[in-house]
Amino acid sequence: MAYFFENPSRTFSEYLLIPGYSGPDCIPNNVNLKAPLVKYARGEEPELSINIPLTSAIMQAVSDDNMAVALAREGGMSFIYCSQAIEEQAAMVRRAKSHKAGFVTSDSNISPDATLVDIQALKHRTGHSTVAVTSDGTPNGKLVGLVTSRDYRVSRMDGTELVRTFMTPIDKLITAPPGTTLKEANDIIWDHKLNCLPVVDEQGTLVHMVFRKDYDSHKANPLELLDKHKQYVVGAGINTRDYAERIPALIEAGADILCIDSSEGYSEWQKQTIAWVRENYGNTVKIGAGNVVDGEGFRFLADAGADFIKVGIGGGSICITREQKGIGRGQATAVIDVSDARNEYFNRTGTYIPICSDGGIVHDYHFTLALAMGADFLMLGRYFAMFDESPTNRVSIGGSYMKEYWGEGSARARNWQRYDLGGKDGLSFEEGVDSYVPYAGSLKDNLGITLSKMRSTMCNCGALTIPEFQDKAKLTLVSATSIVEGGAHDVILKESVAPKGYTQT
């Protein structure tokens, strides 16, 4: 006989937080939103953490290298989508990893016998205006000069000029030796008013480049998420079909963490994928799994060796899995159930496995509700799809700007691998839709408002960290009537009645 859960499946909108005592230190500037990304043993620190508890979804319409850079700059992290060729995904990871670092390997290089036309083509391809001129045109050749936009004027040149004739030669450059610390490099850049500082060894070989803009960026973004090499932390999605080929390419490209992209994670395929990672990489490669919606699914993936576990089926704004197959669970109920299982697992084994709430977010206050219910961090699609940094087109619909947004289970994406049940290749029916979301502008501006709301809410509950918030939070169910009461009601909003040209007298 089928098993029936006694309690109904509930969403975030059915809950409210009850305020707690706010002490004198409970101010938003004191709130720390840091959260663990991977499992860790009792009394230890996780190998990977995140400075704000937000990640962008493994979706074509959301997470490419541009989103990865923009979100890491704010303290979050992206999982670059896997429904593309392995080489293309690895290239996205590589671009995101090389975009920002204290010491970077030069990826814009040219030989002295190239021409101005070659410089322009390289600049168009990489987007970088500073080009290292090495004897053989490679990233680690002998440095003979630099070319910046100040070294040439296209309007006064015909394009055939050799690079050696207009570059700034090595004897006029200020360089630093290997072993220079990042602080020392930045001091040299500041003292000599440089835009970049080449690091060159005793043989004259180019080793690294240090850029002024990276220092300025760090000062403007104190929460940016960096690895030990001062590069942005970048995640990547994988599937349960071509993982043996995809994972090595992503690791070689520099991916810091992987996540299995699947609509339903309680499967033998995910267990096999994780086992392959452990057999080939041990615990050096971090991998998340999911999605699940109950404690049983959590325990299965925990025992399989997942580093974090995603929660949520059918709650995404573009997901129609529940409509198509009748499978899923209200996101609030799923998070509460799985967090209970996570806590029981931690008490029993001493290993804490973070859970990620994926889907069901409609309003900003849902972010803090998900955290209060036990989620360690969130994965978001629609939210990040609205911003400039998402990879989709901005279009005008009915006089309003929109961004395209489609699900991985839609006919447009055709990401059949995430719905794979071991059968034949291909998408037999859709589990996602093709849609638009309102265009919202830059990620930084909008995310700043969202984070302010989160910090303020936590202070209202007397908490300065996410663990403290989860310990102190008090939640109440709300009725349909009280949901209406929570918004503007029993008034006539001015913008709904004021005629054009109306002025107050």
Kindly list the characteristics that best describe this protein.
single chain; 505 residues; alpha/beta; eight-stranded parallel barrel; four-stranded mixed β-sheet; 17 helices; 32% helix
Task: Pick out the low-confidence regions.
Answer: none
* Share of residues in strands: 15-25%
Query: Strand order within the widest sheet?
Result: 5-6-13-14-15-16-18-19
Identify the overall geometry: globular
Q: Which sheet architecture does the biggest sheet show?
A: 8 strands, parallel, barrel
Radius of gyration: 25 Å
How much helicity do the residues have? 25-40%
Task: Average the pLDDT over all residues and give the rounded result.
Answer: 91
Report the count of strand segments: 23
Count of DSSP-assigned helices: 17
Structural class computed from helices and strand pairing: alpha/beta
Terminal residue distance = 71 Å
